[in-house]
């Protein structure tokens, strides 16, 4: 029987696509800062999206799990996971949206870069600067934040779609219902194909006497 899944599968795909965008572009550069250091000289430093908005990595993982849930769970859990995904996506969209709208605050840029100054001494890949360095300019790399916001928007739309149209679930059968269905099908197979070896062995395995169920039999199951 065909089960109407509503829009749970397209919604799950949207949530998953949003998770991919958010996870990928939160790893890119969101802010590039120019600084002047009276001791070490000036230079530039980059701040990644996951550093500017530390929750993006966790939200991207949450969206991945919610996408799987919207696809695989039964109706109540599909709706719950999609609602969580929509709320998480909306929350994760705020920092990159504010960054695009208001620009990078130099005070926060200085705080983030000086927080990495200890790590800067252990490897050349870190963008930490000394505490006495002065931020002279902070420019926003719009692509990363914009696509992160787009990913959050996709995930939020997908969550709302699944929440509104979660579809239906296939009816569950308990152990006795499954056994009854199996016996009924075997009896039909015995009537239709009494000479089939596979049907005979399946009937014997289910404690059904195929000689009683065949065309020449009484149609009653042999007493145990």
Helices, strands, pairings?
Blueprint: H1 8-25, E1 29-36, E2 43-48, H2 49-52, H3 56-72, H4 75-102, H5 106-115, H6 117-120, E3 134-140, H7 143-164, H8 175-192, H9 197-205, H10 210-213
Antiparallel strand pairs: 1-2, 1-3
Helix pairs in contact: 1-3, 1-4, 1-7, 3-4, 4-7, 8-9
Quick structural gist:
With 224 residues, the chain is mostly helical. It has helices at 8-25, 49-52, 56-72, 75-102, 106-115, 117-120, 143-164, 175-192, 197-205, 210-213, and strands at 29-36, 43-48, 134-140. Residues 117-126, 173-177 and 216-224 have low confidence and may be disordered.
Description:
Strands 2-1-3 form a three-stranded antiparallel sheet. Helix 1 (8-25) packs parallel to helix 4 (75-102), helix 1 (8-25) packs antiparallel against helix 7 (143-164) and helix 3 (56-72) packs antiparallel against helix 4 (75-102). 60% of the residues lie in helices and 9% in strands. The protein has 224 residues and is mainly alpha-helical. The model is unreliable at 117-126, 173-177 and 216-224 (pLDDT under 50).
């Amino acid at each position: 029987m065909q089960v109407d899944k509503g829009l749970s599968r397209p919604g799950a795909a949207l949530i998953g696509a949003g998770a991919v965008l958010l996870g990928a572009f939160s790893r890119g550069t969101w802010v590039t800062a120019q600084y002047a250091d009276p001791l070490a000289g000036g230079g530039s430093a980059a701040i990644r999206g996951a550093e500017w908005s530390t929750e993006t990595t966790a939200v991207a993982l949450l969206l991945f799990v919610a996408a799987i849930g919207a696809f695989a769970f039964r109706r109540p859990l599909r709706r719950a996971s999609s609602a969580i995904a929509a709320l998480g996506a909306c929350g994760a969209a705020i920092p990159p949206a504010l960054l695009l709208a208001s620009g990078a605050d130099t005070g926060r840029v200085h705080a983030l870069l000086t927080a990495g100054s200890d790590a800067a001494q252990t490897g050349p890949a870190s963008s930490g600067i000394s505490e006495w360095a002065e931020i002279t300019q902070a420019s926003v790399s719009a692509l990363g934040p914009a696509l992160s916001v787009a990913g959050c928007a996709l995930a939020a739309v997908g969550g709302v779609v699944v929440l509104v149209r979660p579809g239906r679930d296939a009816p569950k059968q308990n152990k006795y219902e499954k056994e009854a269905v199996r016996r009924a099908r075997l009896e039909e197979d015995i009537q239709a194909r009494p000479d089939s070896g596979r049907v005979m062995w399946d009937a014997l395995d289910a404690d059904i006497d195929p000689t009683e169920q065949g065309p020449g039999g009484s149609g009653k199951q042999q007493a145990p």
